[in-house]
Design a protein that fits this description.
By secondary structure, the protein is mostly beta strands. It has 2 domains: 1-36 and 117-128, no CATH class; 45-112, no CATH class. The protein is 6% helix and 26% strand. It has 1 helix and 8 strands, in the order E-H-E-E-E-E-E-E-E. The strands form 3 sheets. Strands 2, 3, 4 and 5 form a 4-stranded antiparallel β-sheet that branches. The protein has a two-stranded antiparallel sheet with strand order 1-7. A two-stranded antiparallel sheet has the order 6-8. The longest helix is centred in the first third of the chain and has 8 residues, at 28-35. The protein starts with 20 loop residues before the first strand and ends with a strand. 4% of the residues are buried. It comes from Rhizopus microsporus var. microsporus. Keywords: Coiled coil. This is MATH domain-containing protein.
């Protein structure tokens, strides 16, 4: 069941974390406008939604890669540190390009992405400032 149009989440009867929204993980049409605004002045070359289901989170290696997927002619994968990268209080999640041998050492690609996390089988995710632009 999806929780839609939620502007604020009450935690311990306090209006904390008002920037957090909850949706079903598969409600892509509801989630994307809130985390990836459309910039009409930018050209959209490609669009893709990738889901990576992780089973047995507690058994993951300290550094784990998700499956490779292709968007806009580039191969991508998620890099996950389930116990943090240099700290142990929270997970660290990155999106990285899988470089091929033809690419120069200091090359770059520009893209906009969002990373959303679902915990266990709850099928909800909390969305805060989990998006970035690759330059």
């Amino acid at each position: 069941m999806a929780i839609k149009n939620v502007d604020k989440v009450t935690l311990d009867n306090k209006q904390e974390h008002s920037h957090i929204h909850q949706y079903s993980i598969f409600d892509t049409d509801d989630v994307l406008p809130s985390v990836l605004p459309i910039y009409k002045e930018l050209e959209q070359v490609d669009f893709y939604v990738h889901h990576w289901e992780i089973k047995e989170w507690s058994n993951l290696d300290q550094r784990t890669h998700g499956p490779v997927f292709e968007v806009a002619g580039y191969k991508w994968r998620t890099l996950l540190f389930p116990k943090g990268n240099g700290q142990h209080e929270m997970a660290s999640i990155y999106l990285e390009v899988v470089q091929n041998q033809d690419q120069k050492k200091d090359w770059a690609v520009c893209g906009q992405f969002a990373i959303m996390l679902t915990i266990d089988s709850v099928m909800k995710k909390s969305i805060g400032d989990l998006h970035d632009t690759i330059l």
